[in-house]
Amino acid sequence: MKNLLTKIFDQKLVYKIFSFLLSVTTLTLPVLASSHSEAPLISRDRFADNTDTYAFRSIEKGRENYVTLIANYIPFQQPSGGPHFFRFDDTVLYEIKIDNTGDGVEDLSYQFTFQTKVKNGDTVLGQGAANKDIAITSLDDADYNEAQTFWVRKIDYKKNNFGSLIANGLAVPPAISGQR
């Protein structure tokens, strides 16, 4: 029986199997990494954490070839956490990559950058400053203390790796605060 086990579990065979499994595991680790806040690298920068991305094909008449993309960033924000919700980070390049050909390599990319302008730096209230009644009801509300604007760049990797600016200086709507 011992000789049979020795033949079956030949050391060279075990070494080959172990080497193969180790190399496969090592090569696939980046593919298995999570993008949520428990992942080691993103846990240090939750403002860059893309928690979910959704794609919806339009069923609207005349728009059958359109897709709507939605990306969520900054995990664990809940309505009860307001009115001081986190804003987009001015130092993060937010990006949605799209593979149209099924080869696992992005063909298109949409990049978003943000800029924050603080109106009243003498308050600790953040987005809603006590300039009036703290409720933010419009983009030009006196209480909208941390207004943000954003830029969108579209990159079509088949045409140009630098892409083109398709929107600039767009206003980010504030988190809803105040009465509804």
What do you see in this structure?
The protein is of the alpha+beta class and 180 residues long. It has 2 helices and 6 strands. The strands form 2 sheets. The chain has a 4-stranded antiparallel β-sheet, with no helix packed on it. The protein has a two-stranded antiparallel sheet with strand order 1-2. β5 (146-156) and β6 (160-171) form a beta hairpin. The chain is globular, with a radius of gyration of 25 Å. The protein starts with a helix and ends in a 9-residue tail after the last strand. The model is unreliable at 28-35 (pLDDT under 50).
Radius of gyration: 25 Å
Q: Percentage of helical residues?
A: 10-25%
Mean pLDDT across residues:
75
| Strand adjacency order, main sheet | 3-4-5-6
Strand content: 25-35%
Distance, first to last CA: 79 Å
Number of E strands: 6
Shape: globular
Low-confidence stretches: 28-35
**Sheet with the most strands, sense and barrel status:** 4 strands, antiparallel
Structure annotation, total helices: 2
Structural class: alpha+beta
The H-and-E topology, N to C, reads as HHEEEEEE
